[in-house]
Write a structure and sequence with these properties.
The complex is a heterodimer.
Chain A (H helix, E strand, L loop, with lengths): L6 E17 L2 E19 L2 E7 L4 H18 L16 E5 L11 H16 L4 E19 L4 E19 L2 E7 L6 E4 L3 H6 L1 H15 L8 E7 L1 H13 L4 H4 L29 E4 L20 E6 L2 E2 L6 H4 L10 E2 L8 E2 L4 E3 L6 H6 L3 E13 L5 E13 L2 E6 L2 E6 H6 L1 E4 L6 E10 L4 E9 L2 E10 L1
Parallel strand pairs in A: 4-6, 9-16
Antiparallel strand pairs in A: 1-2, 1-5, 2-3, 5-6, 6-7, 6-8, 9-23, 10-11, 10-15, 11-12, 13-14, 16-17, 17-18, 17-19, 19-23, 20-23, 21-22
Helix pairs in contact in A: 2-4
Chain B lengths: L8 H14 L4 E17 L2 E19 L2 E7 L7 H14 L17 E5 L2 H4 L3 H14 L5 E16 L4 E17 L2 E9 L7 H14 L9 E7 L1 H14 L3 H5 L20 E3 L21 E5 L2 E2 L6 H7 L21 E3 L6 H6 L3 E15 L4 E14 L2 E5 L3 E6 H6 L1 E4 L4 E3 L5 E3 L2 E11 L3
Helix pairs in contact in B: 4-5
The chains are: A alpha+beta, B alpha+beta.
Chain lengths: ~475, ~450
């Protein structure tokens, strides 16, 4: 403050990670990470500056603070509107998520043996050439202080894992994963999350489906009824709702990199996002989900925000800097991936509210269509409108029953048209908060952990096919 | 533990050698990755984010009785390095033996020291970056610009218990920007090791003109069309080939298209692709994360697939020489080329356009994802400038389109290769020319 800043916040963050990769019964990568540093963010004459250091010495910290001020002063060179912050009462608090079994207290041998057993089971299935098992654990300790008097200490533990079988024959390669692709599923909590997955118990079926895909026909092109499992529904939410409702994107702050949004500020409160069956909330308070925390990285308490109500857009995700431009207070989604990154508007746990029934009820209620499971590829335009998503496996649905499996299934659509075709969401018994630990955004790049409560969903008149 | 970030070779070697020397493990590898950077980000032609960072972390790999573990830490001051070593050894002891681990690589030659940094770029101040952004924005003629200008330096030092010693240091300056004109936008991406060599004024004028040309886009029926791909589009396809196809681990596991096609013609005979971190047209270090020296690696020669990238682990398994393309270890992703070049042709971009009867000019690709790795099928959208070319000239802007293509098929259908190669790539540094191809399949379109 003595150097001329009107606002300062400081975050000291320590991140410990443990990452295990097992292939064909043997460890392929066993790695631990211990990372710590301090970031200083300042507002000087209405412009941001940020600097950081991994060094704990007082001289290094003071140097970072002065450098942040120098950076902020340089920001003024191009002029422009000054930054204002939405008001936020300073909070003094500590927060930690429940952990029943601390991953750092679990013997490595136990974890590796579990993955070895699961991968060996998969490898015994004819056609499977590569069997992989993964576990990842993160423990992040954050200390936040700002010049308004906030003092917040948080410790967040996250855990998860998964298995995958790769079947290869005659130039054909097919992959099947459990419980989700790209290293599995994750949440806030301890090793109990991995234990609940029963990776070994699902290995045989996972591998058999990978092998069966080698000889399965491609998913036929059609406009038909599409049922998504909860994993793919979570991905659909992440890409076509979660990113589109980030207010910094809506305001053009990510225009050069991730892109913008088809939503404009004037749409909030009136835009028809989807059908009457569509209800979306962003809930950072949801126990066990990967986007759960006590306070965001600006010291704003975690909140539950109604995003879409009966298909109408009600709210978007905000930070203090962006919310004030709508005349609002922040709803607590400003998050930084590390000590050396600034907080950006990030998804928390953006998910659907449950409807009724089970996946089997949805199938029984469907005369003709396709069921697609487990994300394989995802691509969407820079305003979050046109998308094409691919899944690992599909089943033909005929007269309420699953039929043949199809390989390489994809579907495509335009976001508001697609969500307008949502006619049914399964009930609470099918809901899971899927964790996405690889959400990229920002320059320099940041990776965020987000959660997506989702169950199976049904959409009408969707273009499906195979790639 | 280190005075400067990034440290010079003497200080860096002192740190990594001291760790290797005091390690109780059978084999030890210590890698120091140190980075200092500043990034000035702008939107609506105003700076809205502005950051400076420094970090130095140690990647430690230890081998105890054939058991391998990796440990990464940046707590070089707080943590007692003996404790760090002890923790790595304890992790290794908890893992089963790794029968595929070939041992750490030995030294191919004496200590390798490479300092290719431009001090003025390493030390660029926030003020200097802001002035550069102002110059670029000013050249855009009032059209709103959004982007990021980054300057910085990366140093890498490797030592292992078999005698490998390598140190390298490179500066880097890059600009990525989108300029908006009504519903149209233009894009520029440029990178160099010298901030002064980024020609921001002419780039600003060029991208603003492209944005003006991209106004009032119209729909075009999806289908298979001839295309002219500008260097950012070609470079991104090469990056995906690097990850999925020229990756030695993917070849060994049968996931790469080259698992069954090495030695075969996979592209047009005019296509030459290689990796060479020492080529002045790219920015790289002459050794990998295991300290193994890099040399030119031919990947596609006269359209024939002739090579893929290996690290020590995959090279051992394949029974071939290590090409020096290890990523930070241990790494389940496998090795990949990071400094690819594609040989330019003879014709200018204007000539590629002038010789196209009907086709689509694509500035860049967005949100590319692999749909079928073994067939090199990717999907994605066009972005920031998609144009219809008729009778040899750009006739109108098009709304962005979705594509689904096999990359090998696109490079097999090359019509011509442009002469003006450019260094592109936000993570990798890829030298790519414009390419026109006879067919490129668009499967959908968006609303803008």
């Amino acid at each position: 403050m003595a150097a001329g800043a009107e606002y300062v916040d400081v975050r000291v963050v320590r991140s410990e990670t443990l990452s295990l990769s097992v292939k064909n019964g043997r460890p392929e990568a066993v790695a631990a990470d211990d990372d710590e540093g301090l970031g200083v963010r300042v507002l000087v004459d209405g412009s941001w500056g940020f600097a950081c250091t991994p060094r704990p010495e007082p001289e290094a910290v003071a140097r970072a603070a002065l450098q942040a001020v120098e950076v902020a002063r340089a920001s003024r060179l191009l002029g422009g509107p000054t930054v204002r912050l939405a008001p936020q009462e300073p909070v003094r608090a500590t927060w930690t998520n429940p952990v029943r079994r601390d991953p750092w207290g679990v013997p490595l041998e136990e974890m590796l043996a579990l993955l070895a057993a699961a991968t060996e089971t998969m490898l015994r299935v004819p056609g499977v050439r590569v069997a992989e098992g993964f576990m990842d654990f993160w423990r992040t300790t954050k200390r936040f202080r700002n010049s308004e008097g906030a003092a917040i200490d948080q410790t967040i533990t996250e855990s998860g894992g998964g298995i995958a079988a790769v079947a290869v024959r005659d130039g054909e390669v097919q992959r099947r994963s459990y419980p989700a692709s790209f290293r599995g599923d994750f949440g806030t909590g301890g090793y109990e999350l991995v234990e609940a997955m029963d990776l070994a118990g699902h290995a045989q079926q996972t591998a058999e489906e990978a092998a069966a895909l080698l000889v399965a026909p491609p998913c036929p092109a059609a406009v038909t009824t599409l049922i998504l499992d909860s994993d793919q529904t979570a991905l659909q939410i992440h890409e076509s709702i979660g990113h589109a409702i980030e207010l910094d994107r809506i305001l053009g702050m990510e225009a050069a990199y991730a892109g913008t949004s088809f939503i404009t500020p004037g749409d909030i409160g009136s835009l028809r996002y989807g059908s009457e069956a569509m209800h979306v909330v962003a809930d950072a308070t949801l126990p066990g989900a990967l986007g759960t925390f006590g306070f965001d990285d600006e010291g704003t308490p975690a909140q539950r925000v109604v995003v879409v109500e009966s298909g109408i857009l009600r709210n978007v995700l905000t930070s203090r800097e962006t919310a004030v431009l709508l005349g609002q207070r922040s709803n607590g989604t400003a998050r930084a991936s590390s000590w050396n990154r600034i907080p950006l508007v990030r998804m928390t746990n953006v998910g659907l509210l449950p409807g009724s029934g089970t996946l089997e009820d949805l199938l029984a209620d469907t005369d003709e269509g396709v069921l697609m499971c487990t994300n394989k590829s995802w691509s969407i335009d820079d305003r979050r409108l046109h998308f094409q998503f691919g899944c690992e496996i599909a089943w033909e649905v005929r007269r309420g029953r699953r039929g043949r499996i199809f390989k390489q299934p994809v579907y495509s659509g335009i976001t508001p048209q697609f969500w307008a075709s949502l006619d049914r969401v399964a009930g609470p018994s099918e809901f899971r908060a899927r964790g996405t630990p690889n959400c990229g955004k920002g320059q320099p790049a940041q990776v965020a952990h987000t959660g997506h409560p989702a169950g199976p969903t049904r959409f009408r008149r969707v273009q499906v096919g195979s790639r | 533990m280190i005075r400067d970030i990034p440290p010079g070779p003497e200080e860096a070697f002192r740190l990594v050698e001291s760790i290797v020397d005091r390690s109780p493990a059978d084999e030890t590898e210590a890698v120091l990755v140190a980075r200092r950077a500043g990034l000035t980000r702008f939107a609506s032609s105003r700076v809205h984010q502005n950051v400076a960072e420094e970090d130095a972390h140690l990647l430690l790999r230890v081998v105890v009785g054939g058991r391998v573990a990796g440990l990464r830490t940046n707590r070089l001051v707080q943590a007692d390095l003996d404790q760090v070593l002890a923790r790595a050894v304890a992790i290794a002891r908890s893992t089963p033996e790794d029968p595929e681990f070939p041992g750490l690589p030995g030294p191919a030659e004496g200590p390798l020291v490479y300092e290719g940094s431009v001090p003025a770029t390493e030390e660029a101040t926030p003020q200097r970056r802001a002035e550069a952004v102002r110059r670029f924005v000013g050249a855009c003629g009032g059209a709103p610009a959004a982007g990021a200008l980054e300057t910085g330096v990366l140093a890498l030092a490797v030592a292992n218990s078999k005698g490998v010693r390598a140190y390298g240091r490179r500066s880097r300056a890059s600009l990525v920007a989108v300029v908006q004109e009504e519903e149209g936008s233009g894009y520029v991406q440029t990178v160099d090791d010298d901030l002064d060599r980024l020609d921001l004024t002419s780039l600003g004028a060029h991208v603003a003109a492209r944005a003006r040309a991209a106004r009032r886009p119209v729909d075009l029926e999806p289908g298979t069309y001839p295309v002219i791909l500008e260097p950012p589009a070609v470079g991104l396809m090469l990056a995906y080939l690097a990850m999925t196809t020229f990756n030695g681990k993917a070849v060994l596991e049968g996931r790469s298209a080259l698992a069954t096609r090495l030695g075969q013609r996979v592209m047009d005979p005019r296509v030459q692709i290689w990796d060479d971190a020492t080529d002045p047209r790219t920015i790289g270090l002459p050794f990998d994360f295991e300290g193994v020296p890099k040399r030119r690696l031919d990947l596609v020669r006269d359209g024939v697939a002739v090579g893929v990238a290996y690290d020590s682990r995959t090279a051992h398994r394949a029974g071939v020489p290590n090409t020096g393309h290890a990523l930070p270890q241990p790494n389940p992703f496998g090795p990949m080329p990071t400094n690819m070049l594609m040989a330019p042709g003879q014709r200018s971009l204007e000539e590629l356009i002038a010789t196209t009867e009907r086709g689509i000019l694509v500035t860049r690709l967005h949100y590319v994802r692999v749909v079928h790795p073994a067939r090199t099928v990717i999907t994605g959208m066009t972005r920031d400038g998609t144009f219809l070319v008729e009778d040899g000239r750009i006739v109108r802007a098009l709304r962005n389109m979705r594509f689904n293509v096999s990359m090998l098929e696109v490079f097999s259908a090359v019509e011509a290769i442009g002469a003006e190669g450019r260094l592109v790539g936000e993570e990798l540094a890829i030298f790519a020319p414009p390419v026109s191809a006879r067919q490129f399949t668009f499967t959908g379109r968006t609303l803008f």
